[in-house]
Amino acid sequence: MGSGRSRSLSPELLSELQASTPFTEAQLREWHNRFLQQQPDGRVRHRDFLRLYRHFLPGSEVAAYAAHVFRSLDSDGDGSLDFREFVLAMNLTAPGRAKVKLRWAFALFDVDRDGEVSKGEVLEIVTAVFQLIPPKERESLPEDENTPEKRAEKLWAHFNKGENDKLAEAEFIDGVLDNDDIMRLIQYEPKK
Ligand SMILES: [Ca+2]
Ligand SMILES: [Ca+2]
Predict the structure, then answer these.
(1) What are the E-state strand segments in the chain?
(2) DSSP classification of residue 103
(3) Are strands 80-81 and 117-118 parallel, antiparallel or unpaired?
(4) Superfamily assignment of 98-186 in CATH?
(5) Is the pLDDT of residue 2 over 50?
(6) How far is the CA of 65 from the centre of ligand 1 (A)?
(7) CA of 50 to the centre of ligand 2 (A)
(8) pLDDT at 155
(9) CB within 8 Å of 89: residues ≥ 6 apart
C-alpha cells in the first residue's frame, strides 16, 4: 500500500504549484506528507471541511458558508479537494495576497459559476456570512448592516448596479480592494 499514483507528488504538479504560489518545494513536500497523514486517500471531503469550520467558529452557524467555500475551492467540481486544490486554498491565506484572495472571493460569490455575480448571488453569500456572526455580536451591528438584506443592498449600491445588472470579476476586485467598509461586508473576521 501507499504506492498508488494519487499518493505521490508528481514533478508536474510540484512545478505547477511552485509557479502559481509563493511556496517553496520543501514547503510543498512537507505539506503533502502532512496532507496524506490527515487524509490517507488524498482527498478532503465536505464533511471534513464542515468539521473544521465548526471547530474554529463554535458559536456560529457555519453550514451554509462552509458549503459555499467548499464549492469555490473545489474547482473541478468532483465533491472533494485534492492536494492541488488544497494548496491553492492555502495560498489564499498567505499574507500580502489581496488580489488572489479577491479572485477567490469572486468565485465564492459566483454561485452558479457563470463568470458573473448577480444581486441574488450577493444576497445568498452575504446571508451565509451573516450566519457566521454570533447572535450576540449581531446586536451591536450598525443599523444599516444588521440584516443580510440590508448588507446586500449596501454592497450592491456600492457597485452602482441596477436590480438585474451583473458584476464582472474586475469590477468586483476593483470595488473591494483597499475598501475596508466593503471588505467587512463580504467576510466575517472572528473577534479575538
Ligand atoms: Ca475537486
Ligand atoms: Ca453567477
Answers:
(1) 44-45, 80-81, 117-118, 166-167
(2) H
(3) unpaired
(4) EF-hand (1.10.238.10)
(5) no
(6) 18
(7) 24
(8) 95
(9) 73, 81
Closest ligand to the CA of 83: 1
Question: What are the extents of the domains in the chain?
Answer: 12-92, 98-186
Cα(113) to ligand 2 centroid in Å equals: 5
Give distance in angstroms: CA of 24 to centre of ligand 2.
Answer: 34
Ligand of minimum distance to the alpha carbon of 82: 1
Ligand 2 center–CA 192 separation, angstroms: 33
* CA angle in degrees (0–180, nearest 5) for 12-18-21: 135
Mean pLDDT of the chain: 90
**CATH number for the domain running over 12-92:** 1.10.238.10
Please give the Cα distance from 52 to 133 (Å, whole number).
Answer: 17
Distance 73 CA to ligand 1 centre (A): 8
Same-fold call for 12-92 versus 98-186 = yes
pLDDT at 1 > cutoff 60: no
- pLDDT of residue 3 exceeding 50: no
Between the CA of 122 and the centroid of ligand 2 the distance, in Å, is: 9
Q: How far is the CA of 72 from the centre of ligand 2 (A)?
A: 12
What does the pLDDT read at residue 4? 43
Using one digit for the tens of pLDDT, what is the confidence trace for 131-141?
999 999 999 99
How much is the pLDDT for 6? Answer: 54
Q: What is the mean pLDDT of residues 134-149?
A: 95
